[in-house]
Amino acid sequence: MTFGMYGALFLLPLTWQSAGTLDPVGAGIALMPMALVFVLVSPFSASLAGKLGTRRMTGGGVALIGCGLVLIGLTADSASIFAAEIGLALTGLGMGLATGPLMGAAVGAVVAARSGTAAALINVARMAGATIGVAVLGAVFAIAHGGPDGLRLSMLLGGLVQLASAAVVWTTTRPATALAR
Fold first, then answer.
1. At what angle do helices 147-172 and 3-18 cross, to 10 degrees?
2. Three-state SS for 86?
3. H helices of 31-146, where?
4. CA 159 and chain centroid, separation
5. How many CB atoms lie within 10 A of CB 87?
6. Which of 107, 96, 9 is nearest to 61 (CA)?
7. What is the pLDDT of residues 106-164, one digit of tens each?
């Protein structure tokens, strides 16, 4: 879930600043759609997961993250940052939808005495994904000599990893009806 998102958080401001599109403060402000959408959506993820199921929420959320990153990649050479803002908002939407249900599934899969361990392990996995994402996507960005070409290649790769992860979630997680039996 965090592989591509943290790669975008690292590479977008770097690209905007190196191209002279935005200064550091402007680049920070331009990242806000992701955080704002996440904050607005995440309080509703538990009730939505109750209605739609964990599989749809986590798989769909991770797929939305992938779609946001693909959009950022496809529009990397645009003179406007508008499409990147939409991509960031999609990424925030996906994070907001997937994070709560994912945490709930991880903690709910173990006995109460092990819930702290489960929560800690999911956080380690999130941070490992973020670290690996920044390293891999940053390396791809550098290999492509940075700029719009590097951003395009790294965001498309990040988006494809997220979409593949969504497919894994969809195929390995039981539907809500199967969990009720």
1. 170
2. helix
3. 32-41, 45-52, 54-74, 82-108, 115-143
4. 9
5. 28
6. 96
7. 888 899 999 999 999 999 999 999 999 999 999 999 999 999 999 999 999 999 999 99
